[in-house]
Structures are given as structure tokens and as C-alpha cells.
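User: Teach me something about this protein's shape.
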Amino acid sequence: MPSSMPANPARWVLQPAQVLPSWQVIAANDATDSANPMHDDATARQLGFAGGLVPGVTLYGYLTHPLIALFGVAFLHQGSFEARFRRPVYAGETLTTYVRVSACDNATYTFELALKNAAGEACVVGRADFPGPLRELPTRTNSVPLPAVRRPATPEALGSNPQLGTLHEIFTAAQSAVLLRGMGEDLALYQSVVHPAWLLRQANMVIDSNVAVGPWIHVASEIQHFGVVQLNEPYTVHGRVVGLSVRKNHDYADFEVTIATTRPVMWVLHRAIYRLGAALEACG
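Assistant: First, the predicted structure itself:
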């Protein structure tokens, strides 16, 4: 069952249709060194974009800010999040969060979410719940060695062995300081715990470490929080392929990812276009 991190209903007095204070940030492409060339200006332009794409995991991180500002670390123990990436975002764009209470009952809240550009267009849309729906903690899987050679990004290779090799990682305080500075993030709790944008990035990293993908596009994620990773604390990233499909000539894959310390702290269902069709449409 989810972590028993206590809630404090008296602190969170929200009404239906209430809009949380917005947060504005200048987008930064913090993945120019990524294995995914979609974040590289030259490659992205060849595919019809204006430049390298700001990662979806970073956009998700921006959109968490109003919720973490309100609920604090409790959201990282009990909150859930769904995000769909609808429009490309480029470095230097001004983004503004929009978070509206769509339902509330007995200190249980559902939020409508959007991350909008300067033109008012929603680049990311989604929903969040606090506390999130009751979900069993993911079963801890045994560590699987990373492959000596990454498998090709084909339906046959992904479908023949769904299990991905395990990452063993530590995120240091020095690395966190760089991430927070780049994101314009100043919430005090991140002086001791890992930002959820970095944890969601692990889904990208476990894919990159196992699959020889070319340019690929992150289109959506579902996230359930069960706890936090402390800075300098070892954690593991377990992944597996749970779905393959074709839409508009693009190949999609769904990856289930669990991040754990001594216990699971985040569950993710990560959807990506892993093989682009001849006619690319922005963000699928």
C-alpha cells in the first residue's frame, strides 16, 4: 500500500474550481548531452522542429512546482500525476503553470493541469490527484544486468524480451544543485531530496541504456509517488516493455518503470514514439 506519510487537511483548504498560484519559468534544454538526438538542434531541425526539444521530463518537473509548493513532501509520498506532451517546447520560451481544482472531497483533491507557452497554448496537459488512488506498491524485481550490446529499436527486439537491464544510480548534492539552477527551482525541500523531474528522467535513461534508439519522442507518462530519494542515496531503476503499438505510421512503446531505494518510491508508465514514421507530426 502507499506510504503512510501523514496528510494535514487543516493546512490545505481548497474549493472546487479554485486555481492555484501560477509559476513562471524560462524553459531550458537540459538534455543536450542526452543519447536522444531529438534534444540536439541540428537533428531536430532535420526532422522539422525549430530546434532541440526541451525534455518532457523537465516540463513535467515545471508543472509539479505549484503542487509541491502547496503540499510539500507529502505529495511525493502520496500524489499521482498524468502528463501528456502536446506541443514542442524550445529553450528560452516562457512557460506558465495552470493548476485548477477540478474536484475535492474529504481532503482528497483532483487537479486539472496545463503548462502554457507565451501564446497561451497548452504544451503539456494532465491531471494530478492527492492523495493518489490507492495502488499496491510495485513488486521489487531482481536486478537484471545491463546488456553488453543494446538491442535494436524494433518491435521484434522489444517484444522478445520485455525485461530491461537495471540501473544502479546515486544523485549527488552537487548534481542536484546544477539541476535546480537550470530549472529555476527554489523550493527548500530539494536541498535534501531528489527532484521528481530527475526521477522521471530515469525512465528515459533506462531505455537509452538498453535500446539503441535513434531520435525518439516522449509523449506521455503516468506517475505514482510512494516516497522520496534522499540526495546521495543509492537507488535502482527497473524497467520492462508492457505494450507496443503503431499509430499514424509511428511505432509506440509503453515502458513500466519502478524506481526504488530500500523500497519502491516511484512507479511510472512511460509512453514514447521509439521509431518515427516518414511523416513526423510534432509530439505525436
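Now, about its shape. The chain has one domain: 9-275. The two ends are 34 Å apart (CA to CA). If you'd like, I can walk through any region in more detail.
User: That's plenty for now, thanks!
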